[in-house]
TrEMBL record:
<dbReference type="Pfam" id="PF10257">
    <property type="entry name" value="RAI16-like"/>
</dbReference>
<feature type="domain" description="FHF complex subunit HOOK-interacting protein C-terminal">
    <location>
        <begin position="584"/>
        <end position="676"/>
    </location>
</feature>
<dbReference type="InterPro" id="IPR019384">
    <property type="entry name" value="FHIP"/>
</dbReference>
<feature type="region of interest" description="Disordered">
    <location>
        <begin position="181"/>
        <end position="204"/>
    </location>
</feature>
<protein>
    <submittedName>
        <fullName>Family with sequence similarity 160 member B1</fullName>
    </submittedName>
</protein>
<feature type="compositionally biased region" description="Polar residues">
    <location>
        <begin position="192"/>
        <end position="204"/>
    </location>
</feature>
<dbReference type="InterPro" id="IPR045668">
    <property type="entry name" value="FHIP_KELAA_motif"/>
</dbReference>
<dbReference type="InterPro" id="IPR045669">
    <property type="entry name" value="FHIP_C"/>
</dbReference>
<dbReference type="Pfam" id="PF19314">
    <property type="entry name" value="DUF5917"/>
</dbReference>
<feature type="compositionally biased region" description="Basic and acidic residues">
    <location>
        <begin position="454"/>
        <end position="467"/>
    </location>
</feature>
<comment type="similarity">
    <text>Belongs to the FHIP family.</text>
</comment>
<dbReference type="Pfam" id="PF19311">
    <property type="entry name" value="KELAA"/>
</dbReference>
<feature type="compositionally biased region" description="Basic and acidic residues">
    <location>
        <begin position="181"/>
        <end position="191"/>
    </location>
</feature>
<feature type="region of interest" description="Disordered">
    <location>
        <begin position="454"/>
        <end position="514"/>
    </location>
</feature>
Amino acid sequence: MFSKIYWLYNLAPSLPLQEDFVYHWKAITHYYIETSDDKAPVTDTNIPSHLEQMLNILTQEERERESGETGPCMEYLLHHKILETLYTLGKADCPPGMKQQVLSFYTKLLGRIRQPLLPHINVHRPVQKLVRLCGEVLAAPTGNEEIQFLCTVCAKLKQDPYLVNFFLENKNKKLEAAKDGGADLVKKDPSSPDTGQNQKQNPSLVTSALKEAAACQATSPGEASPSSVHTTLPNSDNYNLVSSLLNLTKSPVSLIIVIIRMMIYFLLPAKSSQKYYECLLHCLRSMELLDVYNLKEDAVAFAGKRALISFLSWLDYCDQLIKEAQKTAAAVLARAVRERFFVAIMEPQLMQTSEVGILTSTALLNRIIRQVTSEALLQETIYFLLGEETGPETPAGITQHPLRHRLIEHCDHLSDEISIMTLRLFEHLLQKPCQHILQNLVLRCLEERNYMENKQPEEREEREHMENGQPHDAVDLEEDPLFSDLSPDNRLSSPDWLSCSPPPSTEHTKPDGKTEVHKIVNSFLCLVPDEAKSSYQVEGTGYDTYLRDAHRQFRDYCGVCQRWDWRSSPKPFEKCNLDSPFFEGHFLKVLFDRMGRILDQPYDVNLQVTSVLSKLSLLPHAHLHEYLLDPYINLAPGCRSLFSVIVRVVGDLMLRTHRIPDFTPKLLLVRKRLLGLEPEGMSVDHVTLLEGVIVLEEFCKELAAIAFVKFHASTSTSP
């Protein structure tokens, strides 16, 4: 009978849009009155066709009217609460498959109609209710439709951020729900989804919906104002939209998880309430580690790969979420990650005594540091690792922040693997765009320049071995073409930050300062005696090979540090507290201690120690440059600098080289083996010392290159 009526309708003349629209809606409601078979699937009825025709009519009506004007068909839909009735039918899933049809209708309606619909109470209220139905059943047949519907809602909220407030509704307000026809009486909390069993249909819901539909159809359209906009914002602690999205993240299908993540990320409006970000905080607390890996790979992967990839995926999601959030909200979210992950989970792992556990947790922390890019999350991560202290460090206060103390101590651990991994961690930290890292680790100890003797130094004499020429590998670097075309963007903003180099001498200094920079460069190049050098015997290992890398790295550091409030020149002596005792700081102390043992440490450890020190030397800070790269500063009694540490190492080297027969040939052989120029053959005695000498020579050349590049960058900005 129903099919016959629909067939006859198609042959009838065209009706006005409103009559046509009402016809299709009444045809749907009459189905529930006339049919006795409620088990037949909805696809065997004409309901899908009628719903599609209603959508087409609404779209056509909007197209024929002026922008923003509500037509009679839309007025009818709003006034007669058609969406409320459809929600009730979809919830009951009567006939079977009706929920899919309702989800699809809502999705197309919100997507096709250009005028804002969500502000209407008779739209956003049923949309809220339908949102709560999403994610109740995992791997449900309506999964695709639920995702499409939620994605459309998220897009609308992104387009009009103020609409977010309509979705901060308390789903436990049962009294209010009862007034809406009983459609909100959901006994089960959507945040605890079903595991796959379909809910039984509730005939009372269908009856209620039909009664409401009949009442609406009997009401004159003029008795209510469908264009009224709901302006009362709910006050609650429940977030229906995010709860539904979170439920869907528990799906076993990885693609769905990724899509839902993108949807939650898409919910971030430029201007949104703090309350809504508390909702996203709930997301961070509740979301499980998401699986986006290939199960087939697990057969050949290391143990724990599955959990690791899931965690890194979750971390990347949080990082991006925080990066796009409003500043205040980003701080709240980042703080939550710090407290609930770093403090609660990571800290016990980093503080343990098991070497395997320390190595694993430090390796993970390394990966986290490299991955985090959002400013708020990076800051909270740094505060977690190093603390928030910026005042002068004292020997008695190095344990004030236990985790910081433990990590720095791990740089000098008995296990070489732990030492290397922790040194690598600090190297990554030094490259992050966070001023607090450098202030906390190094700069706060150098602020008063009390590493220098408390008197004005007299004019310094050149070293005796530098009076009559230069070493064989020193070159006229001022003419190097690498530096002849530096653009202003690649130079320092201030020309005098490097003024801590030796004071000009009227006898020996050329007008361009060339003599002074060569004094510094050659001081490093001449530290290692000729008999302990081997690079000149291997092609392509000269000092100039470090210049290009130093130039690139220094340029990158300048770009990062330019926005920081750093000294462009050293603090004047008269303003420094030179009488206060100098403490180099826990971090530099450990680095200098390890540097002092370079001749007795494994090759890989030495490479990592010198790598961290070179990163520090590249930083464009006046005090750091003075302390690490100026060989001529008068150190206060009991103080040491990087140059003085290397001098002591060289002194030890001179005593030990004479005790090793065939020292120079063995040194050259070890260098060639390290470069892959010689195959591994018979073992060489004293190999640790020989490798240490090679690293020492290369490090001195690197420091010389850094000193020259920084000097040139400084003088290039001079008027």
